[in-house]
Write a structure and sequence with these properties.
about 800 residues, alpha+beta, SH3 type barrels, five-stranded antiparallel beta sheet, three-stranded antiparallel beta sheet, 10 strands, about 5% strand, transmembrane helix
């Protein structure tokens, strides 16, 4: 009976709890969780809490997925706000769960401890209530634990997004900061912030134990030996490899330009391989008994890649300048200029190694924006000044050589364009550093270095490819003779195969170089630059209007590269490949023109595709063109189609001598719209292509005839001796050196009329193009002979009216 009041209270509590509305409005899971804190707390529901936890996990996964993609600064800000809203929701949910857990615990305390002799002495209703409360307490504990885990995970996610925001701000190309001329720019070198001090201290705490272990008593000897071995490989080993490859090139390769290109390649590869091996040994010397952390392992890998890139720069410089063997130098460069530029590749490689190391350290310890910009600005300034000093020194030496009357080397238009672009980029970089656009200057600096690496590698590999193809398929060497005998090919076929393979190899290398320039580099790419500039110019609004500047940039770049490739291939076909096929000049010109027309059509289609133009959206353009063709463009289209017919059916071709409309001349060019005909007076007549298709054209050389006809028609009086005149005309033709003996000249009695007899004399010359001049010479000679023999030519009858009488004259 003493326990009855407590049991009664417990029963009343059970009835009260079961009368609570199970489907009460949820206090969680609203669209704006941050607004629920201001509202009165709704009755608690375990299902609502579980749903809220599930929603929080789903939102967290969504934010992680979006943050892992390429995002802009605005998107990162939105994700950061979403994370903080979720953190507020977690705090609200945690408070509700804690309050509910306290309430359940209070109810358990009210029930008191379970009886010591077991549940048999306890009322069944109380036992069920106790079990239900314990189950709810356990569920609440699990939900609290899950909420704490979500809060910790969201805190880590907020830190990661903050790091991404700082990194995005550092890489923002259009970001403007302090100028290198201001004192604030140099402040991090003298007074870094406490946060940066702490970050550098954490880095030192990671590096110091590794260095101490490498130099302790047990490891010092091995470390010194490994470092000495690395230095020996990097210096002595590189020289031995270069000398060995030079001996192989001299004694095992044919006497051809292949020796020079192979030696240059071996020099570059020897520098890269020995440097990579030496760096690996140095890394092993310090980490052979030390377990690197994940950040340090990533830093070591990036530094190894950076060291190999710097070694490639130094190797390419040594290979192309080739100051020790000037006669083996690939570029046409004067010795004084090569010696003047000799130290700059090594200095540039060292500065790039320093710059990349600073970048990797800042990225590893996540330094502040001010420190990061200071490092980038300093590195950009030093590298830019180094490259500029190299250009100035080369120009000074070149000017001195020109003043001394020497040729500094044969340049080209492409070389001039590259040097002009390089100079302009250096000037823009210095202006960007002065005006405070440090990240933009860093982008330009690294792009200059990357462009030099790609351009020099392309030049070296292209030379090697062409020289290897020429040597492999040359009949002067054993490889070419073996291929000739094995496949039964002729000398011309070997030349054609060599030209085709070298052209394909050069085209493939050029394509790879373009891809490397657009997608490679040291961090920021041209696409990143465009995205950053678009953020300043309102890129989202442009995209909303369906204006994609990155597509425009891609289309412009592709058009420029495509035009350059088309012109290069056209020159290659016209100068290298087609002359080795034995085709006639007219056929070669037609093929080159046809290739150019098809190539430009494909280039236009590719440009439209890169601009995002869909062909199903061009129906209105086709309709407009059809109307335009019907009114004003039909002549242009007709000439265009006629030009294609001329290039395919070839009724006339370049080099033919034609006569159209009484005008005779040689065809010099067949373009898309018109054909150029060079007349005898060296003037040019432009004839629309449609006239050559629709009108009668006399093609003197269509049947590949190499003979011309010199035919003269003369009228003599009736009282002459025809046989005497015939012999005189034949003698005049025979004495002319241009007239061929075979076929022999002939005289034909063409007409007998009251006013005289007509004789036609015909002779053949070696070319139709000299027939006119030969006729002139023959007329001079024949007139002289007729006057000597007193043989007159008949003249037409004229009428005179005298005193109203008609008299015949």
């Amino acid at each position: 009976m003493r326990r009855f009041p407590g049991m009664a209270f417990s029963l009343l509590l059970i009835v009260f709890l079961h009368l609570l509305p199970a489907a009460a409005p949820a206090a969680f899971g609203a669209d704006e969780p941050s607004q629920t804190a201001d509202k009165p707390a709704a009755p608690f529901s375990a299902a609502a809490a579980s749903a809220e936890l599930k929603r929080l996990q789903t939102e967290q996964d969504r934010i992680k997925q979006q943050a892992s993609k390429d995002t802009t600064g605005n998107q990162l800000t939105e994700l950061d706000d979403a994370v903080h809203r979720l953190l507020a929701d977690v705090d609200t949910l945690t408070g509700t769960l804690v309050a509910e857990r306290a309430k359940v615990q209070a109810q358990i305390d009210l029930l008191g401890p379970p009886p010591a002799d077991g549940s048999a002495s306890e009322a069944p209703a109380v036992a069920r209530q106790r079990a239900d409360l314990n189950g709810r307490a356990k569920a609440l504990d699990e939900q609290l634990k899950k909420a704490e885990e979500d809060k910790e995970s969201l805190g880590n996610l907020a830190d990661q997004i903050g790091k991404l925001q700082r990194g995005h701000l550092k890489d923002q190309v259009a970001l403007r900061s302090n100028s290198i001329l201001s004192g604030d720019f140099w402040m991090p070198a003298f007074d870094p912030s406490p946060q940066d001090r702490q970050r550098f201290e954490s880095l030192r705490s990671l590096v110091t134990p590794m260095a101490k272990q490498a130099w302790d008593a047990d490891h010092r000897t091995g470390t010194v030996m490994l470092l000495a071995l690395a230095f020996a490989i990097w210096s002595l080993g590189r020289r031995l490899i270069e000398r060995g490859m030079a001996w192989v090139c001299l004694h095992r390769l044919p006497e051809h330009r292949l020796r020079r290109s192979a030696l240059a390649l071996s020099t570059a590869l020897a520098t890269v391989l020995t440097t990579a091996l030496a760096v690996r040994i140095v890394l092993f010397a310090f980490t052979r008994d030390y377990e690197l952390s994940e950040p340090m392992r990533d830093l070591a890998d990036e530094l190894i890649k950076l060291t190999m890139t710097s070694a490639l720069i130094a190797g390419l410089g040594r290979a192309l300048l080739c100051t020790r063997h000037p006669t083996w130098r690939l570029p046409s460069l004067h010795d004084d200029i090569a010696r003047a530029l000799r130290p700059f590749p090594i200095v540039l490689a060292g500065l790039l190694l320093l710059a990349g190391t600073v970048e990797q350290l800042n990225r590893t310890i996540d330094t502040s924006v001010q420190v990061t910009l200071f490092g980038r600005g300093l590195v950009s300034l030093v590298v830019t000044l180094t490259i500029g000093a190299g250009l100035l020194r080369a120009n000074r030496v070149r000017a001195a050589l020109v003043a001394a009357g020497e040729r500094p080397g044969s340049g080209s238009t492409l070389t001039g364009i590259v040097l002009a672009g390089l100079t302009a980029t250096i000037v823009v970089t210095l202006v960007a550093l002065v005006t405070g656009y440090i990240t933009f200057a860093r982008f330009l600096t690294y792009e200059i270095v990357w462009f030099d690496i790609v351009l020099c590698s392309l030049y070296l590999l292209t030379k090697l490819t062409r020289d290897a193809c020429e040597s492999l398929f040359s009949v002067h060497y054993s490889s070419g003779r073996i291929i000739k005998q094995l496949f039964g090919l002729g000398d011309s076929h070997l030349d054609q195969v060599s030209t085709v393979l070298s052209g394909l190899g050069s085209s493939l290398l050029l394509l790879l170089a373009v891809i490397a320039l657009l997608t490679g580099g040291f961090g920021t790419t041209p696409k990143d630059l465009l995205d950053s500039l678009l953020m300043v110019l309102g890129g989202e609004r442009l995209r909303a209007m369906n204006i994609m500047p990155e597509r425009i940039l891609n289309a412009v770049i592709a058009t420029g590269v495509g035009v350059y490739i088309l012109r290069s291939v056209r020159r290659w076909l016209d100068a290298d490949l087609l002359p080795k096929t034995g085709m006639e000049p007219g056929m070669r010109a037609s093929l080159v023109t046809l290739f150019s027309n098809i190539g430009y059509v494909l280039l236009v289609l590719m440009t439209l595709s890169l601009l995002g133009v869909r062909w199903d959206n061009l129906a209105w353009i086709v309709s407009a063109l059809s109307v335009g063709i019907g009114f004003g463009l039909q002549e242009i289209v007709k000439n265009f189609i006629s030009g294609l017919i001329l290039l395919t059916e070839r009724p006339v071709k370049v080099g033919d001598m034609v006569n159209i409309g009484g005008v005779e001349g040689d065809i010099r060019r067949i373009s898309v719209r018109a054909t150029e005909i060079q007349l005898g007076d060296r003037s040019t007549m432009i004839v629309p292509n449609s006239q050559l298709i629709s009108q009668s054209v006399r093609n003197v050389t269509m049947n590949n005839s190499t003979l011309g006809v010199a035919s003269l028609t003369l009228t003599f009086p009736l009282n002459i001796d025809p046989e005497e005149v015939r012999d005189m005309l034949l003698a005049a033709y025979a004495d002319n050196q241009a007239i061929l003996d075979h076929p022999a000249p002939s005289v034909t009695f063409s007409q007998l009329a009251p006013n005289g007899i007509t004789l036609t004399v015909t002779g053949f010359v070696s070319s139709p193009r000299i027939a006119g001049g030969t006729k002139s010479d023959l007329l001079f000679d024949i007139l002289k002979r007729l006057r000597a023999a007193e043989i007159p030519l008949t003249h037409p009858q004229t009428l005179r009216l005298v005193n109203s009488e008609v008299l015949a004259a």
